[in-house]
Design goal:
It is built from 23 helices and four strands. It is mainly alpha-helical and about 750 residues long. It has one domain. Helix 12 runs antiparallel to helix 13. One of its GO terms (molecular function) is diphosphate hydrolysis-driven proton transmembrane transporter activity. Its EC number is 7.2.3.1. Keywords: Cell membrane, Ion transport, Magnesium, Membrane, Potassium, Sodium, Sodium transport, Translocase, Transmembrane, Transmembrane helix, Transport.
Length: about 750
């Protein structure tokens, strides 16, 4: 049965890519506007490609060196293979390609959204969201196709061809090699996210501080030298960076579930691989229903809520995925009890697995809703920042920090409840499958997220082209919603990272041959504290990098205003390319050290102090990183929408305040502080969390305290004689790596 069903997964990925191509062709056919608009869009597209080429050149060296090391390490232990190097390269290439696809369509959709906004808000939403959905479907389609196809190859190579046990060392090798794909994807995602974040915020801060505050012109004014770099930054950071980010998240989540699924001996109709195959199938289903959900994102009137339209499409994709997961789980998993010896020999059923999927989807939806509340215009948190802007810059900063800190409470409670509930439903496998359920609708989540930067670019092009006021008003409506959806997307990503990291952590513990992490041990407790510190130094490096790059940008913009006469009178064109070059060079230079910390810290601790101390390090990084990510994302999003609220006017103490007022200037300061929070260090936290866990998973066989070959031989003997019992499982648990037994 599995010989045919296993091919369904890559087929679903191909379907997603076909739909993506159709939507991409539709966007390309739309009117790109007049020559001025086309020229500006071309500047943005060229700047974005210049950055990607510079980034890819550096990352190319990294990928080659890392692949050589991985290939060599694959020869050192029996549960790995030199093929892991090829898997790593494929993951890195597809991750980079996912980012490129999103950026390519975004730089086409932006100007077409501007042109569509000349006619109606409905058409502008259709173009911008279709552009976003191209990215969402492309990322998810590549992930499902890549993971599904490589699993088929490695399953046949290491298990079928050798006659190996699907629960033993043969499948462990297949999944260890597949982990290389995830490592490649997450490595590129980290550099793309950090580099893109530094780029976009350096340009944004320069455009804001000199353009808005000093020169008194809009950040998107054609006279602002940093405006092209700012619009390029929206693409390389919020589109290409986010695309690579969620591609890596998607892959890591599926991998974690598959690794834990190996530890379930399942008497199913799929040769015993149903628990391993299930996360892939759920991801494929989520991709299909995300396609369905995209067709429900529309409005009929100018006064209709864009946010409501996006929420409708999102909820439809979630509910359809839940409905379809039930029959698939009932069909694939066997009747009776399944036993997970990890975490106290948890006994669960396939209904428990379905319950975990539902819990994961609920947690994802709640995280998005909570984030939306804390970052939306008109809600209490943003209104509190607006009010505190009336008394100056300092109180605005205090208000934003307070909102960001407060916003960690509900998400953490939801996350804790989701972890505990999914564990009760199906043990650690339930936690992993809950993360897979949450990430199932990634295509829709990313479509909603990517539409925001497209709308932001569209507004910039409208401003620079001098289009009528109603055009900018329509793009501003989309942009304001885009700020909220971007924040919600980041909340969703950090929640998935927490669940995925826990599942990867559980998989690591098994492969590393340890039963628990004992914080009574001084070295383990030390590792925990060091791990909790890493997100702080990582954030510090990212924010400081933005600050240094922004200083260079500010000085360049001031120089151009000072040395090029006629800019303010529209008699001379600014040197946009100089600002683009500054952001590109700064981002490439500054992304190296944060990336090195994420990649090297688990390797140094693991090889120097052993697997248990590394476990402590991972626990510290996960908890601290989740809190830092939520705090920074929400504080930055709230500051941004507080600033945007002044564009239509806000009532403060009975007085209407608008752009240009002292309160608005204070809100610009808050937004400037929040920029690196929400677009550089904050969203990088989820990649940091998962990447360190994946690195630990890859090196686990090398630092394992137990011989895997001896374990597999003992288990296979017991299974063949059909004498395996829970008592025997507990006996084996004392001497060898735990296995899920039935």
């Amino acid at each position: 049965m599995e010989q045919t069903f296993i091919y369904v997964v890559p087929l679903l990925g191909i379907i997603g890519l076909i739909v993506m191509a159709i939507k991409s062709a539709w966007v390309t056919k739309q009117d790109a506007g007049d020559s001025t608009m086309a020229e500006l869009a071309e500047h943005i597209a060229k700047g974005a490609m210049a950055f990607l080429k510079a980034e890819w050149k550096i990352l190319g060296y990294f990928v080659v060196i890392a692949a050589i090391i991985l290939g060599w390490s694959g020869t050192l232990v029996e549960t790995s293979s030199p093929v892991i190097a090829i898997s790593f390269i494929i993951g890195a290439v597809l991750s980079a390609f996912a980012g490129y696809m999103g950026m390519n369509i975004a730089t086409k959709a932006n100007v077409r959204t501007t042109q569509a906004a000349k006619t109606s808000l409905k058409q502008a939403l259709k173009v911008s969201f279709t552009g976003g959905s191209v990215m969402g479907l492309g990322v998810a389609g590549l992930a499902v196709l890549g993971m599904g196809a490589l699993f088929i190859v490695f399953y046949n190579m290491f298990v079928i061809s050798t006659g190996g046990d699907v629960n033993g060392a043969a499948m462990e090798t297949a999944l260890e090699v597949l982990a290389g794909f995830s490592l490649g994807a997450e490595s590129i995602a980290l550099f793309a996210r950090v580099g893109g974040g530094i780029y976009t915020k350096a340009a944004d801060v320069g455009a804001d501080l000199v353009g808005k505050v000093e020169a008194g012109i809009p950040e998107d004014d054609v006279r602002n030298p940093a405006t092209i770099a700012d619009n390029v930054g929206d693409n390389v950071g919020d589109v290409a960076g986010m695309g690579a980010d969620l591609f890596g998240s998607y892959v890591a989540t599926i991998l974690a579930s598959m690794v834990l699924g190996r530890e379930i001996v399942s008497a199913d109709n799929f040769g015993g691989i149903a628990p391993i195959l299930l996360p892939l199938v759920i991801a494929g289903l989520g991709l299909m229903f995300s396609i369905v959900g995209t067709f429900f994102v529309n409005i009929s009137k100018e006064t209709d809520s864009v946010q409501t339209a996006l929420n409708k499409g999102n909820w439809i994709s979630i509910l359809l995925t839940v409905a379809a997961s039930y029959p698939i789980i009932m069909y694939m998993l066997p009747e009776g009890d399944l036993v997970l010896s990890r975490g106290g020999s948890i006994i669960f059923t396939k209904m428990g697995v379905f319950g975990a999927v539902v819990i994961g989807l609920i947690v994802g939806a709640l995280m998005s809703m909570i984030t939306e509340y804390y970052t939306s215009m008109g809600k209490r948190p943003v209104n509190s920042i607006i009010k505190q802007s009336s008394t100056g810059h300092a109180t605005n900063i205090i208000g934003g920090l307070s909102v960001g800190m407060e916003s960690t409470v509900l998400p953490i409670l939801v996350l804790a409840g989701g972890i505990y509930g999914s564990f009760l439903a199906a043990g650690l496998y339930g936690v992993a499958i809950a993360a897979a359920g949450m990430m199932a609708t990634t295509a829709m989540q990313l479509a909603i997220d990517a539409f925001g930067p497209i709308a932001d670019n569209a507004g910039g092009i409208a401003e620079m082209s001098g289009l009528p006021k109603e055009v900018r008003e329509r793009t501003d409506v989309l942009d304001a919603v885009g700020n909220t959806t971007a924040a919600a997307g980041k909340g969703f990503a950090i929640a998935s990272a927490a669940l995925t990291a826990l599942a990867l952590f559980a998989a690591y513990v098994g492969l590393a041959g340890i039963d628990s992490i004992d914080i009574y041990k001084a070295d383990v407790l030390s590792g925990l504290f060091v791990g909790a510190m890493i997100p702080f130094i990582f954030s510090s490096l990212c924010i400081a990098a933005v600050g240094r790059a922004a200083m260079d940008m500010v000085n360049e913009v001031r120089r151009q205003f000072r040395e090029i006469p006629g800019i303010m009178e529209y008699k001379a064109k600014p040197e946009y390319e100089k600002c683009v070059e500054i952001s590109t060079q700064a981002s490439i230079r500054e992304m190296v050290l944060p990336g090195a910390i994420a990649l090297l810290s688990p390797m140094i601790v693991g090889f120097a102090f052993g697997p248990e101390v590394l476990g402590g390090l991972l626990a510290g990084i996960t908890v601290s990183g989740v809190l830092m990510g939520i705090f920074q994302n929400n504080a930055g999003g709230a500051w941004d929408n507080a600033k945007k609220s002044f564009e239509k006017g806000v009532m403060i103490d009975g007085v209407m305040q608008y752009k240009g007022s002292e309160a608005h200037k204070a809100s610009v300061t808050g937004d400037t502080v929040g920029d690196p929070f929400k677009d550089t260090s904050g969203p990088s936290m989820n990649i940091l969390i998962k990447l360190t866990s994946i690195v630990a998973l890859v090196i686990a066989p090398h630092i394992s305290e137990r011989p895997h070959g001896e374990f597999a031989e003992k288990v296979n003997t017991e299974l063949e004689s059909k004498e395996i019992t829970m008592e025997k499982a507990e006996e084996l648990h004392e001497t060898v790596e735990p296995l899920v037994l039935r």
